[in-house]
Design brief:
This protein is an alpha+beta fold and about 290 residues long. The protein folds into two domains: about 170 residues, no CATH class; about 110 residues, no CATH class. It is about 35% helix and about 25% strand. The strands form three sheets. It has a seven-stranded antiparallel sheet. Strands 12-11-10-13 form a four-stranded mixed sheet. The chain has a two-stranded antiparallel sheet with strand order 2-3. A hairpin with a 6-residue loop joins β6 and β7. The longest helix has about 35 residues. It is globular and about 65 Å long. The chain starts with a strand and ends in a 10-residue tail after the last helix.
Length: about 290
């Protein structure tokens, strides 16, 4: 069996106002619960069944609030995730690295849904998520092959949109490649040059919209409502720009893997290239094509 993860986007145009409020409240409660865990300090004896958390207000005083939508399964997975973070920091310290403590979060971006059939359930092009009454219509399920076994999932918020990362298990398919080996060399004038003489020039122009939003952001009052709204728009444009580059990279890698049995790639210092040539490297996807 092969493990693969797919990203599904929640279609917000079909969501009720109450559902959007529930989603925002869900991530807000996850942030409250995580910060309460960090404040108490002892995550290995934390009680995930509690619904009361201490939240610090702007005036510095603490207030007890009730978790209305964050289920016990979600709270349990957040506790396990926090424990894994503590174990990772402890291992780094043993290896001689200088580490600090867990920090509080100003926003919580992902909520684990680890029980398929309970925390989440897939029906056609819709997904049922625990604590959310309305069925969520998602885009991207058509890329999941038939007879795939669904496992855990993660609900994520990013730049005002919501995504669902679904982990699946599929039967191993034997690859049939027509050619044996090829060498790939990255460059600036020609992004990729293959040993058989083929050249691949791929480039995603830097959007002018990002420059315009940067100018708007510089005129806003920092941390104000309009500043936050403009910052969210800027992050969304950067995310769209990055996805285009990732899409090109995946298509190139997919074609190479399906054509050649062995691929030799030189381990170049792409970060150093970017400091020298700047945008000519930023607008390409050569940084994601390398040895794994």
């Amino acid at each position: 069996m092969v493990c693969k993860t797919y990203e599904l986007k929640v279609d917000k145009s079909h969501l009720l106002d109450q559902t959007l409020k529930t989603l925002r409240r869900l991530f807000l409660e996850a942030k409250w619960f995580y910060n309460d865990l960090v404040a108490k300090g002892d995550v290995f004896h934390a009680d995930y069944k509690t619904k009361l958390v201490q939240v610090r207000k702007k005036d510095g005083k603490f207030e007890t609030r009730t978790l209305q939508h964050l289920s016990s399964q979600m709270r349990q997975e957040i506790v396990e995730r926090t424990r894994d973070s503590v174990r990772g920091l402890a291992q780094l310290k043993v290896n001689g690295h200088k580490v600090g403590a867990l920090k509080f979060k100003s926003n919580f971006r992902s909520i684990p849904l680890n029980q398929n059939g309970r925390t989440h359930r897939i029906r056609g092009n819709n997904v049922l998520v625990q604590s959310i009454e309305q069925t969520l219509r998602v885009r991207g399920l058509d890329q999941v092959p038939e007879r795939s076994e669904f496992a855990h999932a993660t609900l994520e918020q990013r730049n005002g949109d919501y995504f669902l990362h679904i982990t699946t298990f599929q039967k191993t398919v034997e690859r049939k490649v027509p050619m044996k080996a090829v060498g790939v060399d990255a460059g600036i004038k020609h992004q990729l040059t293959l040993s058989n003489g083929l050249r691949i020039d791929e480039n995603v122009p830097f959007p002018r919209k990002i420059q315009r939003i940067h100018r708007e952001l510089s005129k806003r009052k920092r941390n104000g409502r309009n500043w936050s709204k403009t910052r969210r728009s800027l992050n969304k444009e950067y995310d769209r720009f990055a996805r285009k580059r990732v899409d090109i990279k995946n298509k190139i890698v997919g074609r190479l893997v399906s054509t050649f049995d062995a691929i030799a790639v030189q381990d170049d210092n792409i970060a150093g290239w970017q400091r020298m040539w700047g945008r000519r490297v930023t607008t390409s996807a050569i940084g994601g094509i390398g040895p794994t």
